[in-house]
Amino acid sequence: MRFRRPFRRTDIARSAVALCFVAGAYFAAVSALTAASRDASPDAALRLSPNDSSALANKALTVTLNGINAKNVAAVERIAQRSLKGDPINPRPYFVMLAVREVQHRPKDVQRLSDLSLKLSPRETALQLWHVERSVANDDIAGALRHYDYVLRIHPELNSLLFERLVDALTEAPIRRELIPYVKARTPWVGDMLRFALTNKGDPIAMTALVNESGGLANFSDSATLGRLLLESLAGAGYVERARDFYLRTPKASPSLLQNPGLTDASVSGLTPIAWELRTDQEVFASFDKNESTGKPRIVVQAPSERSAVVARKLLFLRPGTYTIAMRIAPVDPASPGDVTVNPQVYCYAGQGEKQALGANNLVTPIASGKHGLVVGAACSAQVLELKATSGANQNAGPVTIEDIVLTRAG
């Protein structure tokens, strides 16, 4: 199995160029002024000292990463050889020389120089990425990931430059399979990679597959955050049944939350969107606390006058049928009555195939104060329940609480 486009050799070469400049900028900030000058501008350093071996090495490396070919290979080789005369243990000119020998189609010299370069400086980012490229060319997934792992461990500040290509490749099962040992070993960058993927529209199916194939969230140090991000990504992309199945495999899953919107410890502290998710905006604020008398969780809503916003939402998997939704709204302080009404809204996930779309029609109809009707059709496999708060004109109104949310199925 070959790597997909994100791992093509031309892309790796571009990554190497970008990484080289980012790494150079980073290390220049913490290096001595002369070393920073050599790295940032080898031409300027060479004008001051034409035989400076470090500046020669950086000059040769810059040309190499920008594109070495039959036209410039001889000039690059001369620069690298001059650098080696002044400093025979600098790994950069050896890396340049292996690129030169590759252009010259001398594979034995390439292998010898690559081994020597790694021994001299395994921390050289460009060298590690060259080995990634070489592994990819040889369909060596394990080798490519081994060199990626090295770069990601020693240069975490460069993660985002590498994650994009690695994340896109996770749709391939063989690549996920080679990543499993890194997941089980709790390799530091794996959790960061998943968070990057799930917050940058990575494929949630591939991410979920990696987690499941690796033994679940227990192998991740930040399991709660990753579980929430996975569930939200799956549901947000319309893979609601996969979200349900993944949730039920998590260590603290509560199956009753799939059909019960009541405010409980599990429903306010579990993984969203199966558990309640607060949707505070810039003006309407919502928070969880507990009723001092009963000890039960509740939602507290504070809103200025004449505002409206969804303050909480939850994913449900109700069977087809007729339901009623009831809830109790009360002021936090009886001496400062609130001027906020809260109404439920239910929207249906439906569609052909695995990926479903969220409908635009609210399925709820009012019955009486604090009580609403709901009809779930046969084609509605999952639902989103939202609580929408609307404040009146009273500018001195206090906060209100939402308590005792009860869903009852008729018949």
Q: How would you describe the overall organization of this protein?
A:
- With 411 residues, the protein is of the alpha+beta class.
- It folds into three domains: 13-121, Serine Threonine Protein Phosphatase 5, Tetratricopeptide repeat; 153-253; 257-409, Jelly Rolls, CATH 2.60.120.
- It contains 16 helices and eleven strands.
- The strands form two sheets. A six-stranded antiparallel β-sheet has the order 2-3-11-5-9-8, with no helix packed on it.
- A hairpin with a 2-residue loop joins strand 8 (364-368) and strand 9 (371-376).
- The chain is elongated, with a radius of gyration of 29 Å.
- The two termini are 55 Å apart.
Order of helices and strands: HHHHHHHHHHHHHHHHEEEEEEEEEEE
Report the end-to-end length measured between terminal Cα atoms.
55 Å
Radius of gyration, in Å, reads 29 Å
Largest sheet, spatial ordering of strands: 2-3-11-5-9-8
Classification by helices and strands? alpha+beta
Helix content: 40-55%
Which residue ranges are poorly predicted, with pLDDT under 50 across at least 5 consecutive positions? Answer: 1-38
Domains (count): 3
CATH C-level class of the largest domain: Mainly Beta
